[in-house]
Amino acid sequence: MVKATEKVRETVARLGRKMLESGLVAGTWGNISCRLEAENVVVITPSGMDYANLQPSDMVVLDLDGRVIEGYRKPSSEAPLHLAIYRARKDVLGIVHTHSEVATAFGVLREPIEPVVEDAAMLVGGPVEVARYALPGTEELAQNVVKALGERYAVLMANHGLVGVGRRVEEAFTVCQVVEKCARIYAWAKSLGKPVVIPDQDVSELSRIYRSSYGQPQK
Q1: Mind giving me the DSSP string for 100-139?
Q2: Strands across the sheet with 68-70, in order?
Q3: Which of 6, 10, 78, 205 is labelled catalytic?
Q4: Is 139 a catalytic residue?
Q5: What is the mean pLDDT of residues 171-183?
Q6: Is the full-model pTM beyond 0.85?
Q7: Which superfamily is assigned to 2-213 in CATH?
Q8: Distance between CA 93 and CA 107 in Å, rounded?
């Protein structure tokens, strides 16, 4: 399993640095994980460490019950949230939690981010709903997020931040980038007038096309 997780550790560490450089988090907040389907374990970022200096060896490997399998660091305090999503969604193999500013503002308003641009419709599969507030790191928050996420690929945590999920951890990261962009566009459009939201049936079709045929075949 050490060999299987090494590449994933490197990917998660790299995305942590990219998350900080992209302005999706500040300081040591936010977290990233990747589930190795074959081994049914999760590689997750450590708690409270500077992303700029994060190394693959700092990653923690957990089973789906939260027991540490590998690593000497304390895992992210939001591990219960990640594990709850993985248990509920077998299609999810990567999770990224950010504190991006405009998306989080909608979470403060307790207002969903509507699918007003096509790339967000493709990636999310509907509006980004807001999970009910609960204290960070709690099982209550984890269950609230799972419920609000449903079968979509992004969810807001009230007064907290954004969670993006994907079939790969890189896709989850892209979800967070696109949702933040959509949030900015939606906020600007609301300041100018009444935004026109893409109809539900078109959102469903855009999401279906993206998941079935967009991009190059995976090797």
Answers
A1: -HHHHHHHHHT--B---SHHHHHHHSS-B-EEPP--TT-H
A2: 68-70, 60-63, 41-44, 31-36, 94-98, 161-166, 154-157, 130-131
A3: 78
A4: no
A5: 98
A6: yes
A7: Class II aldolase/adducin N-terminal domain (3.40.225.10)
A8: 24
